Amino acid sequence: MSGANRITGKGRLTPARTVRFTFDGKSYTALQGDTVASALLAHGVHLLGRSFKYHRPRGILSAGPEEPNALLDISRDSARRQPNVRASVQEVFDGMKAESQNRWPSLSFDIGGINNLMSPFFGAGFYYKTFMWPKKAWHSIYEPFIRRAAGLGVAPTEADPDHYAGRYAHCDVLVVGAGVSGLSAALAAAETGAEVMLVDEQPEVGGALHFDAGVTIDGQPGYDWAQATVARLQAMDNVKVLTRTTAFGYYNHNFVALVERVTDHLASPDRRTARERMWQVRAKRVIVAAGAIERHMVFANNDRPGIMLASAARTFINHFGVAVGSKIGVYTAHDSAYEAAFDLRRAGVSIAAIVDTRDNPGTGVLAEARSLGIDVLTGHSVTDTSGKLRVSAMHVTRNGGGAVRKIPVDALIVSSGWTPSVHLFSQSRGKLRFDAATQRFLPDTYAQNMVCVGACNGTDDLQAAIDEAVSAGVSMAREAGIDGSASTSPRGEARFAWTGGMLGAGEGAGADTTVKAFIDFQHDVCAKDIRLAVREGMHSIEHIKRFTTNGMASDQGKLSNMHGLAIAAEALDRPIPQVGLTTFRQPYTPVTFGALISHSRGDLFDPARKTPMHAWEEAHGAEFEDVGNWKRAWYYPRAGETMHEAVNRECRTVRTVAGVFDASTLGKIEVVGPDAAAFLNLMYTNAWDTLKPGRCRYGIMTREDGFVYDDGVVGRLAEDRFHVTTTTGGAPRVLQHMEDYLQTEFPHLNVWLTSTTEQWAVIAVQGPKAREIIAPLVEGIDLSPEAMPHMSVAEGKICGVPTRLFRMSFTGDMGFEVNVPADYGQAIWEAIWARAEPMGACVYGTETMHVLRAEKGYIIVGQDTDGTVTPEDAGVGWAVSKKKTDFVGIRGLKRPDLVKEGRKQLVGITTKDPHVVLEEGAQVVADPNQPKPMTMLGHVTSSYWSENCGRSIAFALIAGGRAKMGQTLYVPMPDRTIPVEVTDLVFFDKEGGRING
Fold this sequence. Notes:
The chain is 21% helix and 28% strand. It has 23 helices and 52 strands. The strands form 13 sheets. Strands 8, 9, 12, 13, 14, 15 and 28 form a 7-stranded mixed β-sheet that branches. Strands 42-43-44-45-41-35-46 form a 7-stranded mixed β-sheet. It has a 6-stranded antiparallel β-sheet with strand order 48-49-50-47-52-51. A hairpin with a 2-residue loop joins strand 10 (215-217) and strand 11. Helix 4 packs parallel to helix 5, helix 7 (336-346) runs parallel beside helix 8 and helix 11 packs across helix 13. The longest helix is centred in the middle third of the chain and has 18 residues, at 462-479. It is elongated and about 105 Å long. The model has no long low-confidence stretch (mean pLDDT 95).
């Protein structure tokens, strides 16, 4: 039996298809297609959870994603478990285990319920005024207690065995929402020939047609028309329909993020199938048909289990065939709740009374209620309820006062009207307007290529919504460049035209009361809390939100925001638009971490990048260091060698014979186009239009503030093509930096940027015999000093493989950098090594590279700079053009504080004792005997033992450093003070002759 409250002949589920599940250890039978909420209601279970702060009993409030109360822990096994799942959304599958949350020892008897008795101490903002004394108790008592109490569910502790997928998609028209408006818009756009994507968060399309049985379209019941329409759409090659898919984020340039629940409803999903799939969609045009969300009524004790939205009760009876009670009360300020009462009454459910705050409801619904024998109390309000774990009675009184009438009920359905779902529109940066006549915010000014239709646009009439949607489908397709026409023209009819609605607190919950009239159910925010926030001086709705936490729960205030805003406006005595509106942020509904990160976890969370020569380096004993994501050969120890001994040997060998170095990790960007030189002129401090093809130049890149951002050598291959190198760690950000300026500041330039870091393997051959090593292998390039001087580039072949050969050096010796396609990297490396090894050369790693570059005074951006260093500070001011009128950072470099005397400058320092190697990061002072706090002049940026110099060497950023040449400064350390002398940056081959061979 699938539940005593299942009504025979009602609903759209198949009675023969049953599934079994458990809730808090008790076994239940459901029908395939049930949500957890509908299945439990079928068995008369209304109590599903406890509230966050007061631990009050809570039941099902809605039948959709706005559910704030019924948040459950859903699991298949101990590893496949997810907390805070909305019972109104989660479909039941065979073997599912559901557990209630935020209670102990049981749901019906929760010791935390004592908080409800102590609620006067837990008013809004209490956390700002408590836990202040004694100070020492914070770490030992208060903070541990708060952390244990925080949150509703318990995070899983086992690794998630499921996998997740991601897809990218492009379309002409994306339609969000598959109700009447969304289906009409999608069909119209599809008929024009446009590529259409239609997405909806529910398992079946239809939107409000799931509950609204009073709608007919083209002579069919509305829900049947929806299924026929989607079948027609699915048969079209130019349409993609995604159900169980939520559009949770609307970003720039019509980029919409979707998450598809692929297997959460299946009993035995294929392990090879992703549990969820993230869709990242770029649409030429977007149509949002997100509908509207029903609001609850705000009155005393409106949170008891059994009190729910009228549309939810209507969904449960019409779609799931479940009656939410046997004697149901209705409290409303809107005609839509009447239709819920009618549907329940026709299903054989007793309606105790319809209590309407209005004196004059819609004449149509009023007449229908009387014809069905339903008692209607107009001009009355529900001012309180009775019951403990479920509502048992509603307390009714005439508006303005009078005797209280206690009417027994076992469920109470409520409606104060409907709020257009403008979340995605607002995320798109569209501007809303407040419609005073209907007391709601509606889309007004569009910021992107999109349009809202139907209820989310404030279009209430059914036929008007259909016509609006069809027109939008055609116009959006046309704007996307599709010239076809559409023939669809659905004709719809609703049984009643709805009127009414109210915002804020109802009778008995006004400013003169202190009752618990809940606005935000999940965070236990009451009407009185909003008023308290105003009394405490909070006049901005954003401040009120944070003081009370209204709208900050996982439902993002879908039910509470408008009520809270109205109560605040009343307390402030201002119109609602003047109070403002809180920000609608992504995601629209909670998104799992699994869907967001997809395969990026475990080893793939921070994947190691390896060069094409990594296997050879590993086989030849290299020790590796992590440089960003890259694994780089650090040094190559021989048997019995320490790291320092290996590095010393490598440094000597490179200077006396030659060394082979894997430089593949350097960032590489291809800059191509007629305006390539002009673009680089703007991005770098030095000039590029004067650089001839076949030549290279060192470049410095600064930010707008004038500080060094990156550096590298740039080779000009042709008039319209440059090969740009960056630092290893800087490659992604430099490309982003360039792309950002190209798209936003210099869009007039005809330039293309392509990352080629992975495409080229780079083998640096450095040292006196570098030319001799590679010469026999190179084809079609003249390597003579006259034909290929320092800072040259040429294209040819090496060992028959295409190469870009650079004559450049980061050691100060003659050097070449051989760029070959990555697939040939190891083969060319082995060929070069076969030449180099017999000559006595060595392979060397990054540590030797650091020492050799420091001997020659070459800086490393990010080590010798810290984000506050200008080119002049770093000693490369010569790379800043004095003739250019513009480049990124030119104005920053002219700021007075960047050109004043006394700035920190990069200089060399040597220890008085040549055998003492300084620690990088150590502070430098002028007077080691100065009382603390000492005046720090700067710090050591690079420090090494130089085998070639026979002593230690170091760089330091020191205030006014170049004016202190020859002076003695001090480096205080815990065990001693080290005297040092300020020098220039070049320690080896000061004349620079070795670089020319």
